[in-house]
Amino acid sequence: MNDQHSLNPLDNQSVGRSFLKYLIPSMLGMLLVALNITIDGIMVGNKLGSTALAGIGIASPVYTLFVAMSLWVGLGGATLYSQNMGAKDTRQARTAFSYSLTIIFIATLAIGVTSFVFRDALVYALGANAETYPFASDYLNVMLLFGFVFTIENALSVFVRNDGNPNLAMMAQITFALSNVVINFFVLYVLDLGVGGVAYGTILAAFLGLMVLLSHFFKKTNRLKLIRIRWNKKIVLAIIIIGFPSFLSEVGLSVFTISHNRTLEAIAGTDGVSAFALLNYVHSTVLLTFLGMGSAIQPLISYYHGAKQEEKKRRTIRIATATALGAGAVLLSIMQLAAMPIISLFGNFSDSVTEHAENGLRIFVMAYLFMGINFVMMTFYQSIGNVKMAVWITAAREMILMLIFIVVLPRFLGVNGVWLSVPLAECIVLMTIVIYYKKQAIRERVLPMNS
């Protein structure tokens, strides 16, 4: 059933204006989320100490899994939603939306309740010991039972952005970030409720963000609508396949962290690991900036692809890659010029830690020249349904090439080989993208690189 009763603003709005409309709120929202994570860690560490912080860190893979699931199904479904809206097939778009929220709710609840039954074994399997167990257990129990609130909020945010309301999605992120800081301050410093209270605070903040998102359904421009669905294997597989690169990207972050920690521990000991922790805090903020760029182009590319507006797809990619390159160059310059002041923000450290951190930061940030473009192109291929290329970009840069370099390079370059592994992986992945892109342009006469 096709529904052509209304014209989408993307049909007649300029590409540049549409890109800015999505880019600014996406990046601001992501940066606030990064700030929230940092402030949360500072409050817990100062009030409850390093053991409590370690306990939350041990339980955090469950939180990461839920984030990965919500992005997996949410972005897969939202891509189908926008493609169908571009094709003016409203019924099919709403089917993708309804399937996505249903899958996320059932999957999160099923995994959470099942894991809760085996929660003690799970806590120890994640790496808890006698000291960290109480804190990890308190945090984990809340997340397992109520994590569906967070996953629904996260996925709905993606759909609201795809339904032409990126500002409301940003407001929901702001609400979540600010309320989480306020609630957790109250929980920790006024009520003195500990780690369990912090977990409940995060869920409550997610619920408040969800309430903001639900206001979208009362707007005249709302096209999202839950409809009755019947099990359709083809739609479910499409959602899962298209969203898989986003899930893989979250898994890749864990691979990146674990591989660097283990290698640096072997080469440079605790000082090397501490230096990487500092670098990782800075990198997380930059990473969310690039993720914001990806979030900005996904609704546009998906819609233009569904509407067969090839010229708008070309122009969007040109603008997005230029923006990513410019942002990468600016970030690289800032890190090179202000490496020591940035490191000193996190506190006073031994000369060895500071030296490793400064050296690592100066080498590692070379990756930013390539990383933003790789993020944009991964999102582009995911948004048009070219999952194989999107998976290659994600797996190569975060796992395959990075792991090869981090195993081989330190044998010849020592600790510098560790810091170089990511820049080299990002550079080579970008080269493969350029080659593939140009071959596609020649074969299809579509999306020429220099058009």
Quick recap:
It is a multi-pass membrane protein. By secondary structure, the chain is mainly alpha-helical. It has helices at 9-12, 15-48, 50-86, 90-117, 119-125, 133-162, 166-190, 194-214, 233-306, 310-337, 339-344, 351-364, 368-383, 387-413, 415-444.
Oligomer: single chain
Provide the number of structural domains: 2
Radius of gyration: 22 Å
Using the alpha-carbon principal axes, give the shape.
globular
List low-confidence stretches: 1-5, 447-451
Distance between the termini: 36 Å
Number of helices: 15
Order of helical and strand elements? HHHHHHHHHHHHHHH
Report the mean per-residue pLDDT as an integer: 82
| DSSP summary, beta strand count | 0
Strand content: under 5%
Keywords: Antibiotic resistance, Cell membrane, Membrane, Transmembrane, Transmembrane helix, Transport
Membrane topology: Multi-pass membrane protein
GO biological process, one term: response to antibiotic
Transmembrane segments: 20-39, 51-75, 96-119, 139-160, 172-191, 197-214, 235-258, 278-301, 322-343, 363-381, 390-412, 418-437
Give the topology, please:
Elements: H1 9-12, H2 15-48, H3 50-86, H4 90-117, H5 119-125, H6 133-162, H7 166-190, H8 194-214, H9 233-306, H10 310-337, H11 339-344, H12 351-364, H13 368-383, H14 387-413, H15 415-444
Helix pairs in contact: 2-3, 2-7, 2-9, 3-4, 3-6, 3-9, 4-6, 5-6, 6-7, 6-8, 7-8, 9-10, 9-12, 9-13, 9-14, 10-13, 12-15, 13-14, 13-15, 14-15
What would your notes on this structure say?
This protein is mainly α. It folds into two domains: 13-230, no CATH class; 245-451, no CATH class. It has 15 helices and no strands. The chain crosses the membrane at residues 20-39, 51-75, 96-119, 139-160, 172-191, 197-214, 235-258, 278-301, 322-343, 363-381, 390-412, 418-437.
